[in-house]
Amino acid sequence: MAAQLESTMKNELPELIVLGPPAVFSVYGGKLAEKFRILKPWESSLPLEEFLSDNAKSVEALLCSTTKPVSASVLNRLPRLRLVVTTSAGLDHIDLQECRRLGIAVANAPAIFSIDVADLAVGLLIDVLRRISACNRYVKSGSWLIKGNYPLASKNELIIDGGYSWEGRGLE
Fold first, then answer.
1. Claim to verify: residue 26 and residue 100 sit in the same structural domain
2. Which of 34, 39, 76, 123 has the greatest number of beta carbons closer than 10 A?
3. Each residue of 66-80: pLDDT tens digit?
4. pTM of the full predicted structure?
């Protein structure tokens, strides 16, 4: 009886289709399963469009990443879809014009990697200005034995204009 009740309750959960799956699904899939009945097309032998036509008529939300495009073809096979969520900062893998036309909300994570990108940008800037990688190649090639020491750049050359992007704000 308890198993039947649990099965009935699970079928009453809203449906979420996960394309991909996104890398975060391995971490958060269990938590999502508590709130949604999750459809996993990657576990099916059917092509995506056929899977959607056969299984996803009542899906209201879609979770994706940049690895699987959310095209007009995908969107039009989900008649009850109200929300597309991407685990990425970018949206270029989602047909935003079709989402707008169909009244589907789209959410992303614009600042998810901004601090990491800013850190990397500063590191690369120092690398270029101080010629660290070039010096490394010089030493590894044995040129220092023939040509002598490698001249490092000035420590006083540093210009940062972060701009107004999430990454630029991370440089502040």
1. yes
2. 39
3. 888 999 999 999 999
4. 0.65
